[in-house]
Amino acid sequence: MNNSKNHPLQVAIIGSGPSGFYVAEALLNSGISTEITILEKLPCPYGLIRYGVAPDHQKLKGVSQTLDVIAEHPSVTYLGNVEVGKDIQINELMQFYHILVFTTGMPKSSQLGIEGESLIDVHPSSNFIGWYNGHPDHQSLSFDFNNDSAVIIGHGNVAIDICRVLAKPIDELRKSDIPEQALDLLSQSKINHINLVGRRGPIQAKFTTKELHELGKLENCNVAIHPKHLKLGKQCQQELDEVSNLIAKKNHRVFESYSSNFSTSTGTDKKKITIDFMLNPKTFQGDKNLQSIVFEKTRFEGPAFKQVAIPSDDLVVMSSGLAFTCVGFKGSPFAGLTLDNKKGTLSNKNSRLINEHGEIVPGMYTAGWVKRGPNGVIGTNRECAQDSVNQILEDMPKYVEKPAYGNKSLIEHLQAKNIQFVTFNDWKVIDAVEKEQGQKLGKPREKFTSVSSMLACI
Ligand SMILES: Cc1cc2nc3c(=O)[nH]c(=O)nc-3n(C[C@H](O)[C@H](O)[C@H](O)COP(=O)(O)OP(=O)(O)OC[C@H]3O[C@@H](n4cnc5c(N)ncnc54)[C@H](O)[C@@H]3O)c2cc1C
After folding, report:
1. Do 248 and 147 fall within a single domain?
2. Residue 3: inside a domain, yes or no?
3. Could you give the CA distance from residue 397 to residue 96 in angstroms, rounded to a whole number?
4. Residue 161 lies in a domain
5. What is the number of domains present in the chain?
6. Rg (CA), the chain
7. What is the pLDDT of residues 150-186, one digit of tens each?
8. The pTM of the whole model exceeds 0.85
9. How far apart are CA 321 and CA 147, in angstroms?
10. Minimal CA–CA distance to 56: which of 225, 207, 170?
11. CA 14 to ligand 1 centroid distance, Å
């Protein structure tokens, strides 16, 4: 393909989370002539930086400022409030662009697939996280904090985030950007005991040490682990002793300190977080509301680093009226593209999208969570995006010579369809008003929690 200033590579990036921005950045840095449109289904950009990262981790949310530089580049156009697959279809976009890159993330929680999971008090993590972060799709949800205990299933950082939001004093949360209506409900919470339950052991837990350690620093809260969980079997000890297994070693030290709290953690008026291991959820019990959760005790089989947690007939029943499941995420499907049901990703071969016959779909790529799954930190998406762009550049000579006018044609097309798109300048207006409203309340921002209120603000 002839690539020049008069014939730039026209690229539409679908999704404005960090991966979308990092794909744009890598294209801009590649030295080719390119024009990029970033399409986002919500009026506001940044994906899970705005709607996933915990509200009490404001410093991290500040990463969005580094993404603004990319959005404001003259070769980049941001169009929010445009949902691909709903407002505009993939085949329509292909009329205007040489390349589509899907960076749509994984908006849905994976399910355990067990009995009782649909009871009203059993919440997939994405619903609760979206609710306390002010995501418009989750504002009609309700959570019953009128329970004295909650159970969180899963041993990763998402579970820790949820645990912190439930355990942190409300006055601390008021300094975050949790919307006022969520703070109102959380301020009435009666939860004083939270169980963090995983089906494997302490050496296999996916927590990062910083987040694990932060739990122990919560005001008026004790974190406890039964000492029996730290008596390791031979294979677990072997995993812990492995020189490169640094996270497990660091976590283990934190677990040991929590285990020394175990005997003193009851009988105080402090909140309590218990971390439980080797329990596999079997059934959520209740009529309409959740009453208890049945777990099967598990035991390990197999060699070190390949141990599998096998459920046994030995059952443990935990009484609780509120549960959160944090067992992974999955992407949303698009008509004409295939979703890998096992991984929850868009099916791809090294970033190139493939159809149901395993054939590469020309001109379509992916990056970020929806390409590789929900792992790594925000910076991991930058490497991932660079890798996707490397594949795009490798394929450049294959692109058919076709006229493509990118955002100019797309904007006319959206206007003809009466779709009210949001520009980056429009977003900046929303951003400024949110910050101003937040300042009055002594918080970083007060988010608009509906699309209509964001549009009205513009
Ligand atoms: C609860 C939680 C806490 C986290 N905390 C941290 C942390 O503390 N530190 C850290 O480093 N990482 C953290 N992460 C991970 C980090 O958020 C992800 O690595 C990152 O957001 C993934 O980026 P992405 O762009 O692939 O997806 P996303 O951030 O999900 O962005 C996808 C974007 O695509 C848009 N979209 C989806 N479908 C469409 C469509 N059809 N049309 C147009 N737009 C669409 C979405 O609205 C969204 O804006 C956390 C994740 C979660 C879930």
Report:
1. yes
2. no
3. 19
4. yes
5. 2
6. 24
7. 999 999 999 999 999 999 999 999 999 999 999 999 9
8. yes
9. 6
10. 170
11. 12
